[in-house]
């Protein structure tokens, strides 16, 4: 907290940063820092001396005692060079920010680690959130480690991987049939029971945690920014956080140049932001019937909508809807060509990159980052079943391998 100045609402009101705060309806809250003091007392190279986790950026996080943070080693995930995909897509350079390496298997751990660390410092015992799955699993692990309670409200189709993270940790977990009512249910339950409402963008700490993705991308690119960044969008929190990091680094004078063009992807079966962007609107309408696989991006009414739409406009970006079939094909392609196994919702970024190129948004020399927010291991049942031949004698093996190779190369050619 050494460098935290205050918390500011989107309407410009300032608050002291010494108590848990929940945003008023229609508003968001953000931490502000004494960036001038950081610039005077530190260099960006000082971060490299910190741990290989989000806590290397403790100066830019709202936690009073980082040495006592609730941590499972989250962050400092690899930015993996993807030369084969870069060549196939026809871009100058392509990197995959592999968030599947985080403790629970997704980027949600960054927000959980910072928020639970801070709220435990402030004496909060019980929090509640709605989550399409991954945040619920992540917050359960961190709440268990912190000795606090995180109540999870999940859709009935949440992934089995997540349900086991919730079950094994013993964190209270509930289902709701009508996902459109989940936000209101959390707000009501928190009000009735005096719990802290930690839904996406209702409180400011999750944003700070996820901001570390942007800090890492800049540091891993040698303190430069990419030309474009492709992000699989749900509530909007992750992309807003990454751009908050870029803005803070620019204000510190530690990176230069324009903000990357923001490209967002959503499943075609729940694409309120794509629709709003295509229609030139500044806010989203609530998406009606949701038809997407279990996992992330189930956000029919993204609270981050207005902020994301503004970022899309100011960075000259684009928003693309991807079918489930195209997402699954892109996941296979990413795994087969680069060895990175993404959750299907994250593979929408590869399809989105191609759609952005087709619209002329990405040049042939562009340096592009795809944010792979979670591991395919979180969503095994969504993938095509893995069926392989059974061999009974050594003599059969070579023929079976040749048949398998043929199948693989025809799949790659088809993409
Ligand atoms: C794996 C994964 N990626 C991306 C998202 C999108 O999250 P947000 O837009 O809130 O950063 C989610 C959650 O919906 C998710 O679980």
Please describe the topology of this protein.
Layout: E1 4-9, E2 14-15, E3 29-33, H1 35-41, E4 79-81, H2 83-89, E5 93-98, H3 108-121, E6 126-130, H4 134-146, E7 149-155, H5 160-169, E8 173-176, H6 182-193, E9 196-197, H7 205-220, E10 228-232, H8 237-252, E11 261-267, H9 272-278, H10 305-314, E12 318-322, H11 324-338, H12 344-358, E13 367-372, H13 394-414
Parallel strand pairs: 5-13, 6-7, 6-9, 7-8, 10-11, 10-13, 11-12
Antiparallel strand pairs: 1-2, 1-3, 4-5
Helix pairs in contact: 3-4, 3-7, 4-5, 7-8, 11-12
The structure holds pyridoxal-5'-phosphate.
Summarize the structure.
The protein has 13 helices and 13 strands. With 415 residues, it is α/β, with parallel strands linked by helices.
The helix/strand order is EEEHEHEHEHEHEHEHEHEHHEHHEH
Strand content: 15-25%
Q: Count of helices? A: 13
- Give the helix/strand class: alpha/beta
Which small-molecule ligands are present, each listed once? pyridoxal-5'-phosphate
Could you give the distance between the termini? Answer: 49 Å
Structure description:
With 415 residues, the chain is α/β, with parallel strands linked by helices. 39% of the residues lie in helices and 15% in strands. It has helices at residues 35-41, 83-89, 108-121, 134-146, 160-169, 182-193, 205-220, 237-252, 272-278, 305-314, 324-338, 344-358, 394-414; strands at residues 4-9, 14-15, 29-33, 79-81, 93-98, 126-130, 149-155, 173-176, 196-197, 228-232, 261-267, 318-322, 367-372. Strands 4-5-13-10-11-12 form a six-stranded mixed β-sheet, with helices on both faces. Helix 7 (205-220) packs across helix 8 (237-252). The longest helix is centred in the C-terminal third of the chain and has 21 residues, at 394-414. The protein binds pyridoxal-5'-phosphate. Pyridoxal-5'-phosphate is lined by residues 106, 132, 134, 200, 232-238, 295-297, 299, 343, 345-346, 373-374. Pyridoxal-5'-phosphate (PLP) is lined by residues 106, 132, 134, 200, 232-238, 295-297, 299, 343, 345-346, 373-374.
């Amino acid at each position: 907290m050494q460098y935290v100045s205050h918390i500011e609402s989107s309407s410009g009101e300032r608050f002291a940063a010494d108590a848990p705060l929940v945003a008023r309806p229609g508003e968001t809250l953000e931490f502000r820092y004494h960036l001038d003091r950081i610039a005077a007392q530190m260099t960006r190279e000082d971060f490299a001396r910190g741990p290989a986790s989000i806590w290397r950026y403790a100066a830019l996080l709202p936690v009073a005692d980082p040495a006592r943070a609730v941590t499972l080693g989250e962050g400092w995930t690899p930015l993996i060079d993807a030369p084969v995909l870069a060549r196939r897509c026809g871009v100058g350079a392509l990197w995959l920010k592999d968030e599947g390496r985080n403790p629970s298997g997704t980027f949600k751990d960054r927000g959980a680690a910072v928020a639970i660390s801070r709220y435990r410092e402030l004496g909060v015992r019980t929090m509640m959130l709605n989550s399409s799955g991954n945040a619920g699993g992540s917050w359960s692990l961190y709440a268990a480690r912190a000795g606090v309670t995180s109540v999870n409200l999940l859709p009935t189709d949440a992934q089995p991987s997540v349900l086991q993270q919730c079950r094994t940790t013993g964190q209270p977990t509930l289902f709701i049939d009508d996902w459109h009512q989940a936000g209101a249910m959390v707000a009501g339950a928190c009000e009735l029971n005096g719990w802290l409402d930690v839904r996406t963008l209702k409180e400011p700490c999750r944003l700070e945690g996820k901001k570390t993705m942007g800090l890492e991308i800049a540091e891993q690119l040698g303190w430069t920014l990419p030309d474009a960044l492709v992000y699989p969008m749900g509530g909007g929190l992750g992309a807003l956080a990454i751009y908050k990091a870029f803005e803070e680094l620019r204000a510190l004078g530690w990176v230069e140049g324009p903000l990357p063009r923001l490209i967002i992807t959503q499943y075609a079966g729940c694409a309120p932001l794509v629709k709003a962007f295509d229609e030139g609107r500044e806010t989203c309408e609530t998406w009606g019937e949701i038809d997407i696989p279990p996992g992330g991006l189930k956000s029919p009414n993204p609270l981050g909508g207005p902020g994301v739409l503004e970022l899309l406009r100011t960075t000259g970006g684009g928003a693309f809807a991807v079918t489930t079939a195209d997402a699954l094909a892109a996941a296979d392609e990413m795994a087969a060509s680069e060895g990175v196994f993404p959750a299907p919702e994250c593979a929408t970024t590869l399809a989105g990159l191609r759609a952005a190129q087709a619209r002329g948004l990405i040049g042939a020399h562009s340096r592009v980052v795809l944010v792979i927010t979670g591991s395919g291991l979180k969503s095994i049942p969504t993938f095509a079943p893995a069926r392989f031949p059974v061999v009974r004698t050594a003599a059969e093996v070579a023929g079976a391998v040749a048949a398998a190779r043929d199948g693989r190369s025809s799949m790659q050619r088809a993409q």
